[in-house]
Design brief:
This protein is mostly helical and about 280 residues long. Helices cover about 75% and strands about 0% of the residues. It is globular, with a radius of gyration of 21 Å. The N terminus is likely disordered.
Length: about 280
Amino acid sequence: MGLVTATVAPPTDSNVIRWIRTFSAISRSGFRRYATYRQAALAGVITNTVFGFLRCSVLLAAAGTGTVAGYDRGQLATFVWVGQGLLAVVLLWGWTDLADRIRTGDVAADLLRPVHPVTSYLATDLGRAGYAALARLLPPVLVGPFFFEVHLPTRWPTVVLFVVSAVTAVVLCFSCRFLVNATAYWLQDVRGPMILWALGSGVLAGLYFPLRFLPDWLQVVLWFGTPFPSLLQTPLDVLVERDPPAVQVGLVALQLGWAVLLLAACRLVQRRAERRLVVQGG
């Protein structure tokens, strides 16, 4: 009896189209799911706007009548108000879907579906981000200019780079949150990792203050040694044109590199977890 070699059929155009349609359908369902929480979105907008006034006043006081850390007053105002809206789009905290399903054992159903869990959760998160861009990003961006002088982009590539950077930040932050949630495969209780993530991401992503306030050597360590600055600091610096075009492109390229690396890490961790997964009660 001759040997038979099993081969995997290469992807065809129809398979790619089917994958795109599936990904789009999951993203649309994610959009619709989060669009049902209108009261929560309104409460979030009010909270972010209030904190926008507080943060903007503090940073403008630090700048005085000049500049601070390379930002003028208009750039600082834009940094704050767009950052308040972008926070909900990127979503640093508040996502425990994977950890909850691991704890209850429902994740076993995810493994039986034809779509990889990382792909499915990513598509849903992109749909959520799309809704947040409309419901949570636009209001602070529109409110800020009524009360503060803001910086508008003076170079047309800045808008394109900002959109690319913001979408990349969503993918990157999803990857970080997925990895934090995935610790439940081994720990079951993820409150510890969640607290560490909440504390570290808020400070190191540039939410509380621009990371350019830090010493130069520490900025280099954070940007090249961790993905945190790419979550908020990079898209905001690109938008306010804190750096020349070449540096803007370099920051976005670094951000893309982190996103690819951590997405690959998500798939690796998921594959390792599936090998040792023990569903509670079964």
